[in-house]
Amino acid sequence: MVLFKRKPVQFLQPPYAEDDQEIWHIPQTGEVFVTYEDYLNRLDFYKQKRFICQITGHSGLNFFEALESELAGAQEVEQAFPEPLKGPILRRVQFQTISRIDNLVDRLYEEFKSDFYPGEHVTVSVLTGERLTGVVRDKARFGSKCLADGTMSTPFSRYFVSLDDRDDEEAVVDDHNIWRDRKIFTKSVLRSFIKKTVTREAWTGAPWVVKEEIAVQFKIDTRVPHHLRWEYKLNERKLAQSQKRLSNQISGNGPDGTGLANGFQGPVRLPELKPASRPPKAPKAHGQNGDAGHGGKGNRTLFAKPEAGQFMHLPMPGNPFQFPLSFRNSQLPNMPPAASQPEPPPPPPPPKYPIEDLNLDPGNIVRPPIKFLCQDPPVEVEKKSTIGADILMKSVGYFLETWDTLNVYCEIFQLDSFTFDDFVEAMRVASADTRVQLFDEIHCAVLKVLVHSEADGGKVQFRLPEIEQEEDSDEEEEDGDDAEDGDEEQDPTPQPTARATRSSMAKMEAERLKAEAEAAEREEKELENAPKHRAEELLANYDWLDHLRKRHFRDGGWETIVVGLMHQLSKDERRKAVCEELLVELVPREIEPSLDSIRQQYASLNVNHRIQALQILCLLTAETKAVRRYMEDCSEQMTAFRKDKIDWQRQRKQALEELKALNEERKIQLPENLPPSPPRDPIQDANGDSKTDEVIEMTPTEEEIADTEDDAPRNVRRGLRGGNDRAAERQRQKEKEEERKKELEAAKAAPKQTKQFLKLLKEIQKKEDLIKKCEEEIGVIDNDLREADCARTRVLGKDRFWNRYYWFERNGMPYGGLPDSSTADAGYANGCIWVQGPDDLEREGYIDLPEDLQNNYKAQFNMTVPERKAKEEGHTSVYNARQWGYIDEPADVKKLIEWLDPRGFNELKLRKELVNYSGKILRHMENRQQYLGVPEEEKKPKEAEETNGVHIKTSNLSKRMNTRTRKSPVPEQPEYKCLQWSNTTAVDELGHLHSEPPAPAPPKAKRGGSRKKIVIEEVVEEPPAPMKTRSRKKA
């Protein structure tokens, strides 16, 4: 049965429908719907990736995938599980109350792994030691018996096994000489069988019940005992709560907190001065319990309960057995009215996090401001970006998309990786005066991927719209004109001149005006349909595909090829408007088209048009076989990496288990290998002076030294008076020798234990080194998987307002670009976190809500969703998916992490990703700031050194020359960072840049020169080998 949120999916009951009414049907579930809207809603529910296959436990499936998985798993379980075991196991599982299926499986496995039933295929060991296979024919169970010493023997079984290939022989074996095949009865198979055949309701203590159809097959009773039913458990729980409440009231620990049964323990809460509540059937308010007293009706006033507002008699602290008068001679059913008052409803349970982000209470923390790389930000900002002074917001997405594509697939394009700042700068500053190699190489490399070279067949690698042939239509028009001329020639009969009247003249005037209007309208249409550019005129004598196959890129070659490509793409209705706009800029009507004019027009083209054209070219590369093959190779590599990772994880797990056992052994041996404590003096121990012992034991060497140097001659002069001192000295020396002997014996015995302990420590160190190595390898493989994941750009996550956050180094490329790139010393690739606004569906569904939903939200949080967005995002926001902002300050990244609330679904995932990558993000941001800022600070001393060098040289050439003129600043071109980039990859692999022709072949040799030249030319024009990922490259 398919599960949704760990509960079985409940199918809808069929609605009422007429016989001739149109219905919609879901065949997998048998559900019927009378409206198409209900049918679509149910299908959307079934297509969610939130269902679980009950048998295999696989999650993240839609309903139909989970149902298919269950059917396949049920068939496998049916075939794999032994038939004779099904009945006994199901009878044992029936009405079990073990809630966790893991514990139930463990218990059943331990119980049945040594128990066999008739009909099972088993392996037995006979007396000769031979192992034979057979089928259990019968089984005899012998219970335990009481032995002579009072203990109970272990119960056992005897099995009669019919042996295979021996029809007339049987083996009688006990529990220790019979086995099953290991693959037949395992915990995984047993778990799958239980999931397939048994169900359980979703409440605590619910029993496992065999499914109805299976219980009928095996004749198992499905009537749930009374004590295991939900109603019984509910009544039992209610009874326990009422008894607890009643005991609290009797003991004085009820809600009023009087505490009468425990004596006077503190200040007493005074009763409320309210009229006494009267039961509905009692005619009088007083004397209800008078009949229960000892005095009968005559003592009614004496033993009646106190009136409202009257103080109750309290016991003295010394006598705990005294009770108030209101409790004396009364019965439990007639409690005071205060006890029967309804309790206040319990507070609502706290929400279970995470929840929807916008359902959380608004906070006071404001998101750190974001910056904009454009001149038209969506909000007013204090300081606009100088880098994006001429960039429009609509072009920012093109910049990011193009830069990411070129860097992820840079091995296909044979390009060095480059930073995003260099890319933006190159697209802005490239001109006729400033030739930027990065700008030229990008375009030429992309064009090479789109069309193969002439040596490789010159095949176009993408779908190119066909140009309509207009010659046929022109010929048809000429034929039509000839036919009209022929008709006029065939009718030479002159028409008689009609008589001019007022009506005829008015009619002729009307026809003349109509003809003039039609002519004017025709001219307007011709002007509208007339091309606004001169691309067709340029391409009439220029075959751009042929020049692209021959790689004619120099002197305006690649710019003209782009014009030809745009002209042919304009025949596609989807790209017509964009391509026509670009062609108007590149081939205007007022300029004579030529290679030089197009090169000049491209050099002066606006940066927004440049990135738009490059984005179209990069989109076309996604259709090429080279990119698709690269993605397939990366996918295969990722599969291999995952297998390697699993192997290393298995080794680490095994090493951790072994290390745990070794540490336990080390703890056991550690006390024996600790340094021994100082020996104690037995004589002084007898005297019991422990403090003196410590002093004496701490100074034996000093006394020994003093005795050997000074006391020996002094004792010789003493004579007989020193006899006792000498005896004590001899005793002390004897004791020291005995202690030394003991220490030597201990030292002889110690090396065996020490060697064993040292060996154990070495084993622990080896295991720790192995675990460290496994973790390092797993980290390397994780990085390889990240770099090989090039199919799509991974988003870090979304915030509460559905803004998307991107860190483009997250996947598909090394963190700092290729390590052998010409600008690898920059230490970063993009260096920013980019924020994209929500798409239209998310904006309409979560932010710009209808008025009624906005009012409901405002009633709950005192503000609408747009007001909350303005408050919590500050003065910088993005409102749709075509708007981008970025964060480039390390401090702002930390503030962003603090701003995110992990109690929400979206921000929990986003915060986790930011925390995981925060170290690398901050480091690359710092590298970016250093790369962009430090060279400007070093510019002045560098210029000073160059000026001083010029002064020295000029003074050496001529002493009479005035060197002051050399110190005056010379106007120079501004130095751009992007000019430092060079395409070393193309030079290494091709021998030349993409924008330059191949290097000339070496001169001919005397013999075989022509053949060698041909071979060299073929090598130069040979296409690159299949691309490899950068997974194993290290910085």
Automatic annotation (TrEMBL):
Ranges where the record places region Disordered: 243-302, 322-354, 461-532, 663-749, 935-1035
Annotated Acidic residues bias: 467-491, 700-710
Principal location class: nucleus
UniProt KW keywords: Coiled coil, Nucleus
Biased composition (Basic and acidic residues): 508-532, 723-746, 936-945
DDT domain segment(s): 393-456
Domain of life, per lineage: Eukaryota
Record's protein name: ATP-utilizing chromatin assembly and remodelling N-terminal-domain-containing protein
InterPro entries: DDT_dom, WHIM1_dom, WHIM2_dom, WSTF_Acf1_Cbp146
